[in-house]
């Protein structure tokens, strides 16, 4: 597949370009070809460079406060020159209240300071793939085993083994009413053991214990972009229990894959909201 080409441009009178250089490098690290215009470019120069370099996207950076004039002017010049399919995103010092205006003028996304640079790369990639009708594929494997879920009839009876014999640290006990379980998390290095006690006898853990007895119930893989992953898995014929993520213990977004497609193992994909910014 061809490399995505991005023009990083600084319209207006900004005196420095540290932020623009950082984003240019981040996009290169992500595998894109990046052309940088340098400081103090006019909208006409930027549009001419974008067309000449045949880029997929333009990243505009503006610190001077003139973004409300400069960004829309660039979009309309692109349209005049039949290059309206070039994706335009912006960043720099832009107040939140200006973002709806800019997005209404055809800037597809405005990134505020502090946005992880990788998010910008992911957004541009997605926008280009959507424009070109290319199905996006997930490149990164899950990050680690987040936890192993173990079905127990009683936390009260199960915990002493983990705490007193294995000396694991009990982190939290929580009820997830929607799943009909009470959950205890025990920390083990980077991962956790998740003990699952059924509440009542209607939920999935209750029926698991009835059918198979206590024991390992599922393996949870820490992964971002869960929705994209589910779409891709489903497209590739992997059976899912959840088509879209649901809320699990600790406020995580989770989704289960069907064991029929995974050699009899129940896998959970799990993304912790607080760790997304890493
Ligand atoms: Zn789990």
What keyword list fits this structure?
single chain, 27% strand, 2 domains, 2,3-Dihydroxybiphenyl 1,2-Dioxygenase, domain 1, 278 residues, alpha/beta, binds zinc ion, 8 helices, five-stranded parallel sheet
Question: What features would you describe in this structure?
Answer:
With 278 residues, this protein is of the alpha/beta class. The protein folds into 2 domains: 5-132, Rossmann fold (3-Layer(aba) Sandwich), CATH 3.40.50.280; 144-271, Roll (2,3-Dihydroxybiphenyl 1,2-Dioxygenase, domain 1). It has an 8-stranded mixed beta sheet with strand order 7-8-9-6-10-13-12-11. The chain has a 5-stranded parallel beta sheet with strand order 2-1-3-4-5, sandwiched between helices. The chain has 8 helices and 13 strands. It has helices at 18-29, 43-52, 67-80, 99-104, 117-131, 155-165, 204-212, 226-235; strands at 5-9, 33-36, 57-62, 87-92, 109-110, 144-151, 169-176, 181-188, 191-198, 215-222, 246-247, 253-256, 267-271. It binds zinc ion (ZN). Residues 147, 149, 194, 218, 220, 268 line the site of zinc ion.
Question: What is the fold's blueprint, element by element?
Answer:
Blueprint: E1 5-9, H1 18-29, E2 33-36, H2 43-52, E3 57-62, H3 67-80, E4 87-92, H4 99-104, E5 109-110, H5 117-131, E6 144-151, H6 155-165, E7 169-176, E8 181-188, E9 191-198, H7 204-212, E10 215-222, H8 226-235, E11 246-247, E12 253-256, E13 267-271
Parallel strand pairs: 1-2, 1-3, 3-4, 4-5, 6-9, 10-13
Antiparallel strand pairs: 6-10, 7-8, 8-9, 11-12, 12-13
Helix pairs in contact: 1-5, 2-3
Bound molecules: zinc ion.
């Amino acid at each position: 597949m061809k490399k995505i080409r991005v023009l990083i441009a600084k319209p207006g009178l900004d005196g420095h370009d540290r932020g623009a250089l950082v984003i240019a490098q981040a996009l290169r690290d992500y595998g894109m070809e990046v052309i940088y215009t340098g400081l103090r470019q006019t909208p006409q120069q930027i549009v001419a460079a974008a067309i000449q370099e045949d880029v997929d996207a333009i990243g505009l950076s503006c610190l001077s406060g003139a973004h409300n004039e400069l960004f829309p002017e660039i979009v309309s010049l692109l349209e005049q020159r039949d290059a309206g399919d070039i994706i335009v995103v912006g960043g720099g010092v832009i107040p939140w209240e200006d973002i709806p205006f800019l997005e209404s003028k055809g800037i597809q996304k405005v990134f505020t300071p502090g946005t992880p640079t990788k998010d910008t790369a992911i957004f541009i990639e997605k926008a280009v793939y959507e424009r070109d009708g290319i199905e996006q594929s997930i490149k990164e494997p899950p990050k680690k085993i987040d936890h192993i879920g173990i079905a127990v009839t009683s936390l009260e009876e199960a915990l002493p083994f983990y705490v007193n014999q294995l000396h694991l640290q009990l982190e939290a006990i929580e009820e997830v009413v929607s799943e009909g379980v009470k959950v205890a998390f025990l920390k083990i290095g980077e991962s956790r053991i998740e003990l699952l006690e059924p509440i009542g006898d209607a939920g999935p853990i209750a029926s698991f214990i009835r059918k198979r007895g206590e024991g390992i119930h599922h393996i949870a893989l820490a992964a971002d972009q869960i929705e994209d992953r589910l779409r891709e898995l489903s497209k590739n014929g992997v059976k899912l229990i959840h088509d879209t993520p649901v809320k699990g213990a600790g406020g995580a977004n989770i989704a289960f894959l069907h064991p029929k497609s995974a050699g009899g193992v129940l896998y959970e994909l799990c993304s912790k909201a607080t760790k997304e910014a890493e």
